[in-house]
Each structure stands twice: as C-alpha cells, then as structure tokens.
Amino acid sequence: MRGATHAGRAACAVVVALAATACGGGGGSTADGAAVFSSSWTDPQNPLEPANTNEVQGGKVLSMIFRGLKQYDPKTGEAKDMLAERIETPDSQNYTVTLKKGWTFSDGEKVTARSFVDAWNYGASLRNNQKNAYFFSYIQGYDKVHPAKGEQSAETMSGLKVVDDRTFTVRLTQKFSSFPDTLGYNAFVPLPRAFFDDHAGWLAKPVGNGPYAVDAYTKGSEMRLTRWGAYPGEDAARNDGVTLKVYTDNNTAYTDLMAGNLDLVDDVPAQQLGNVRGDLGDRYLNTPAGIIQTLAFPHYDKDWNKPGSAKVRKGLSRAIDREQITRTIFQGTRTPATDWTSPVLGAQGGYKKGLCGQWCEYDAAAAKKLIKEGGGLPGGQVKITYNADTGSHKLWVDAVCNSINNALDDDRACVGNPIGTFADFRSKSTTQKLSGPFRAGWQMDYPLPQNFLQPLYYTNASSNDGKWSNQEFDKLVDRANAETDVAKAVETFQRAEEVVRDNMAAIPLWYQNGSAGWSERLSNVALNPFSVPVYDQIKVG
Amino acid sequence: MGQYVVRRLLQMVPVFIGATLLIFLMVNVMGDPVAGLCGDRQCDPATAAQLRKEFGLDKPVWQQYLTYMGNVFTGDFGTAFNGQEVTELMSTAFPVTMRLTIVAIVFEVVIGITLGVVTGLRRGHPVDSGVLLLTLVVISVPTFVTGLLLQLLLGVEWGWIRPSVSTAAPFDELLLPGLVLATVSLAYVTRLTRTSIAENRRSDYVRTAIAKGLPRHRVVTRHLLRNSLIPVVTFIGADIGFLMGGAIVTERIFNIHGVGYQLYQGILRQNTQTVVGFVTVLVLVFLLCNLVVDLLYAVLDPRIRYA
C-alpha cells in the first residue's frame, strides 16, 4: 500500500495548492472598511417595477429604495404616515391625500402628487403587464384602463386627480375604510420621471426615494446599495450600505455565513434548523410572519359541495395533529393555526387566537365520527395536491396524510399528489382542474384582516381558487369594508371568519415564521411582518 | 478532408432541428408558465392574457416553434420572464461555465492521463492497485457529496477558500469547483488511459521502438501514448458537452452563476425561451466537439483518413 499513500499524498498536495491560490484570490466583499454588509438574495422573478413585484425577493429591494404614503411599523405592523402628511375622507370613498414637504428622489427630483398619480396609472394600465394591477381595482376608472376583456379605453383612471404639487384626490368605486392602511404596500410607491422617460435605464439601475440608493446592479448575481446621505425621512439607514448577493441554494448561503463570507441570511434552510442554535447561538431569529398555510378545497366539485361536506372537512381538520407536525418537521418554525389570519396582526388588528376552537384541535375519535356523519370521504380517499419543486412541501403533506391515516385507522385514507413544478401546480389550481384538497399558502400584502379573508374566500375573488361562495360571508365583508370604526370593522371581519369556520371553507394548518441568521459583525437585526429584514436599522461593527 | 467536414456540418442540421423541437415540446408539455408568475395568487385574467400574447403563448405550438426558430436564425433568442434578453443571460453565463469546463478538462487531462500512464506502465504494482481503488471510490461517490464535503472542509472548517464563487468567477476561484466537477470523469480517464497503455505496451511497434534503442521517454510519449490516446480523446471530447450542461449540481453547491444555474431557474420558472435557448447552444457545442474529436483521430493516427 506504499503506492496508494503516495498517490493520496500527491492528490492532497494538489488540493492544497488549489486552496492556497483560491484563498489568495478571493477578497471578501465585506472587507472594504466601511460599515457595509452582505445579505443573501435570490433573483427577482419579475422586472423590478413596484407594481410588478409580487414576491419577497424583489420586495426586499423595493422596501430599501422606496418609501410610500404609509409605512408599516416593523414591530407592530401598524400603518404609519410616511410621505403622507394626512389622508382625509368624509365618507370612506373619497380621499384627499396631502404630502409632506421636502421629499425628493435620490436623483434630486421632487416627490409631488404627480409622482404618485403617474405611478398608479402606470401600475393599473393593462398595457404595462403589471402583475399587481388589481391593487388599484378599488379606484374609479380602473375598469377602463384594465378591462377584463378587450382593449383598454382610457390611459388614466378617472378616480385620480392632481390638485396641486402636494395634494391629490382618490375616488373609490365603493366604500373602503381601511384603504389608507393598504397604501404601505410596494405597489403604491411614487415613481420619478426617469422611470417613464428612460425605462430600460431605470430598470438597469432603479432610482427611488428610500433610505438606500442603488450603486450597481448586476442582474442575476449582485446588487450593491449604499446609504443615501440626503434621505429626508426619519428612518435613515444606520449602516453605510448593503450588498445583496444572489444564491441559487440557501444551503450555500448558510455555508457562506458559517465561513464568514456573508453577513445575513434571511432564509435558514430546513436542513440546518436542527443545528442552527448551536452554530449561531443568539444570532438567530425566528419570528411569526404574515404567512398562513391552509388546505383549500375544490368547492366547484360536487363531491366536496354536498350537504355533509362541511362535516367531512371539519373531520379532516380534527385528524391533523398540528402540534406534532410543526414540532417534528418544522422544528418550531411554524405555529399551529387557530384562526384564518396571522398573529402578526395583533389582537387589536384582527387576529383572534382560538377562533377555530375545537375544529382545529386533534381528536382522532371526533374526526372519525365527523367524517362518518358527513357521508365519508369522497371516493374513500383524499389526495392532497402540492408542488414538489420548492418549499419541501412533500415532507409536511406526507406527515399530514400520515396523521389522517392514523386517526381514521385507514392506510389509504390520504395520499399526497405531487405536481412537478410550481407553475404547473398553479395553472391547475387556478383553472379548477384539481379534484381534492390542495396546498394553499397566503402571504399578506398588508397587515389587515381584510387581506386574509377577502382575496381568498369572497365569491370569485382573485385567489379564491376553490371557488367557495357564501352570501353571508360576502355580506359581512362588504359591511366590514364600509365600517369607519376600526374596532367595529375588525369585529365584523371576525364574524365573517366565523362563517368560514362553520363551513370549514379551508383547513388552517399553521402560521409560518420568518427566520434570519447573521454574523458577529451585525447587531439590531429584526424581521418585519413580511419576513424581510429591517435593513435600515441594522448596525455594523 | 474539406468535403468530410462539409458533410458532417450538413448532418448537424437535422440533428439540431430534431433536438430543439424535442426540447421545445417537452417544455411545452409542462403546462402554462404564466400561472406561476403571480405567486400563490391568481393572475388577473386580463394581465395573464396580455402576457401570453406578449410571449406568443396564445398561438399553437407548431407556430410558436417556427417563430422561435425564425428568430433564432436572426440571433434573437427571446426574452426571459424577468425582462432580460436570453442572449444577455447567455453572455454572462457561458463564459463562466466555459472557464469552469476548461478547469475541469485541464484536471482530467493532466491528472487523469498522468495517473493513467503511471499505472499502465506498472500494472500489478502497488501504485496501480492503489490508484485503481481510489478511482473506484471516486466513481462511486456522487458529485454532490464530494462537493459539499470539500466545501465544508476547505471553506468552513479550515477556511482556506471561500465556499462560494464570486460574481466575476475568475479562474483561481473555480479551481475547487472544477476539480469537483472533474472527479468522476477524471477517474474514467485514468482507467481508460491505463487499459489502453497496458494493451499497447505489448504491441509490435513498441517492441520495435525499444529494440531500436530509443530512449524510454521517447518510446512512451511518441509511440505508446500517441496511439493509446484515441479512446481517451473520444471520451474527453464528449465530456466537454456533458460538463457544460451537467454542471447544475456543482454550480448550485458553489453558487456559480453559469449555464447550470440559468437552466435550473429556467426549468423551475418554466421559461421556454431560456431553456430552449441554452439547450440549443449546448447541442451546438456538443455537435462541434464531436466533429473536432473525429478530426483529431486523423492527427493522432495517420492511418485514419477522411475522404
């Protein structure tokens, strides 16, 4: 074996040589002196336009380079005035917005009422393919610029009018008392002229009015943001800048964090949850985010829309041991759901712990009884459909099925039904091609109970994939939207939520947490209710 | 020779069309990509229809394919869903993967052939059995295990290298990923060379060369190695195409933004334009590599003539 060790040693020498050169070549981007830190990122799915960004990764950048009329408090989620001096309404339908003085974009242009009106009209116009266009659908004239069928017959929405440099009015098609609270969403930010005049140039290097300015953007790999010195707001950045690095695999990002190559990861991979405490100690954060996971049902399918179906759904809900699944599979990064909203709303904001009551508590005997009373499972078996490509959904779907099978003493009661890609899964669920329960995740757009209920359960709402329809629910939501008193609106929404519960329109599973891990250089790291790190508050060194 | 090359180039046309058509159909079978663009929410029908129209998805598949191929011949590979031109993606991804492939091939050639010659000349010697055993281990361990292990050891535990490759991806940072990518092929090259050398060592022309009193290194390099390299060259030639397209795992582990990354993202987001565009170029690379390999035969073995 003398030869073998010889060859082995030669191979080692090669590796050492490589390692040495690689080591010399790789200068860390974190080592340039100033209080700049790096953070993990993935390539945004859509062009970085405010009204076209509907996922967290693009939203991350927008939240750094833009400020809107309102800003959600990172801790409480409350919508606070940012650029808005005041938003007034006599009737919850006609709003007058007055802007604060002194705001500019980082290229020097003043933020005026026109910056908002132009941006919103751009976002709503069908021609511009903006995926968040429906956010403007409450504004009068939306149906002209964004008709459901055919060509648009207007360029601008008639409900938006510029009064003077600092004032504009908004007329809605219906009463919507919490409309001002939705204005913290990224789709509603103002846009500079550069966006319209040199669109390609703007996309290559976006310009906004937030605490950071884009320094350099290499699409698909890196974005360097620096603190904007002349930022007029109170939440100016407490560091000198952030470098967002694109990672294909969050495991690599985590490894880079361990090796000191990266300062912040905001998505700790599931495989590392077991040892993250040991690796990072108290440099790890796991807090509730505005995300709820549910099982939706095909209410368009007559098998699931029979007199006893609600009982069957309740029975299934009681057959799922949420405690055990969140503890063993998610290592405590999910919390068993007891209502259909999210804890980040807070008790005053509409979250009601235990609203689901016994229907969300595990009880095998009760589950069996309910399903039997409801006429049994349609076809003797439920198939839970999910997409197998991302999010490790297979793990929990299998666990849920196991739990149901055990509770019902039937090995064939529940099976998972994987679909290859997210796109295919979505195209099947949105076109009503699924015949059993399917995975449904909801990440809130703004912290209001309305956002957790109306888009998902209102008749023909945008994300009501199961086509559930209930007049009583619709009426309550309409009433809650028109209610000017916040507490009463919340109470009415909760009554609507009780209708969802009594019919078990969807089975709530668990609330999802946001997680983050960071290096020793950073302090004051927090996640906002959208599970995005509050970059401007992070301190370096 | 010239005629042969022309004939081979003409043969590429049907292969090229067939391959692209297959990929095009396969991506299409996966379903409607627009549905995935709006996250866990339904795109509003008007916007979805508009997007379909813009990407040409509202037309029948054959028409989509013809339009696409027509555009490809004018150098337009379409636009990805994030608004970037596919040619732009290619111009950033291919150089990176090319560098990675070059590093891997250099490892294969230098280490693989050297080990092959050494073991081939000393069959049955402990060196031979040792290397054989080593190659067996390397072949049986999957790339992602070697990759993750080396990344953890060298990057985190010992801190010799950066676990991930920076955006610029210069050659020195690609050394470890290149080695990981090359490992399995390297083992095959070693074994191929070894067998070939061992076989040819007993052939008449080698005995003649030795009998003529030529120095040993000249016998080995000019006579033995040159004749033994034909199967190895075939393997390495085919491997170039394989390494460029098959680097998905390695590129993911080391966060290299090359062809594998773009393909992976393209498949996840069901982006026909990206996937077909990249695969088309890979098919071309593959075909050209094969041609070059065939031409190299004539150089290595003068007995082979192309008419």
TrEMBL record, chain A:
Signal sequence range: 1-22
Residue ranges of coiled coil: none
GO terms under biological process: peptide transport
All copies of domain Solute-binding protein family, residue ranges: 82-463
GO CC aspect terms: ATP-binding cassette (ABC) transporter complex; periplasmic space
A Pfam entry, by short name: SBP_bac_5
GO molecular function: peptide transmembrane transporter activity
Superkingdom in the source lineage: Bacteria
Key words of the record: Signal
UniProt-recorded name of the protein: ABC transporter substrate-binding protein
Species per Swiss-Prot/TrEMBL record: Streptomyces cyaneochromogenes
UniProtKB/TrEMBL annotation, chain B:
Domain annotation ABC transmembrane type-1: ranges: 94-297
GO terms under biological process: transmembrane transport
Annotated localization: Cell membrane
Pfam family, one: BPD_transp_1_N
InterPro entries: BPD_transp_1_N, MetI-like, MetI-like_sf
UniProt membrane topology term: Multi-pass membrane protein
Gene3D superfamilies: MetI-like
Transmembrane segments: 12-31, 96-118, 130-154, 174-193, 232-254, 274-300
SUPFAM superfamilies: MetI-like
Keywords of the record: Cell membrane, Membrane, Transmembrane, Transmembrane helix, Transport
One Gene Ontology cellular component: plasma membrane
Chief localisation class: membrane
Family: Belongs to the binding-protein-dependent transport system permease family.
Name of the protein: ABC transporter permease
Organism from which the protein derives: Streptomyces cyaneochromogenes
